[in-house]
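Before the break, one more example. Copy the sequence into your notebook; we will annotate it together after we see the structure.
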Amino acid sequence: MDEIDLRLLSLVQEGFPLTPKPFENLGELLSLEEKEVIERLDGLQKEGLVRRIGPILDLRRLGRSGILAALQVSPEEADGLAEFVNQYQEVSHNYLRPNESGYNMWFTISATEERIQEVLEEIRKGIGRKMLVLPTGRIFKIGVKFDIMCDEEE
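Here is what the structure looks like once it is written out:
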């Protein structure tokens, strides 16, 4: 990673341009061609330094909501059940997190209330087991901005 990558990361986390050619706009700020900006971000993603570039939407303002759900799964069945749950486009996250409750496969569903209930019911029928469902009670906006650019003198 060089100085240009650091500057690019800093710009992207501060605010991605909402224009028809955002990579071109970033390139203009860095004196780079659009293609090089795309290639650099692709490389940073392959290195694991950028996971995703995308919006964070206010679901409630869009007439939608979200829930967190959990299942108790054995390590042997985890991949198959994750594949089943992930077939729904409304599922945005799905991960294993062992804990003392036994509920270890956690996933989120974002949709209208009616669609959330449909998806939950289909998953319950498809896997045939009890599910823990935690509706969103309160929204907490968490913003993280990393100080990517370091002063040489420090």
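The longest strand covers residues 65-71. The radius of gyration is 20 Å. Try to locate both features in your own notes.
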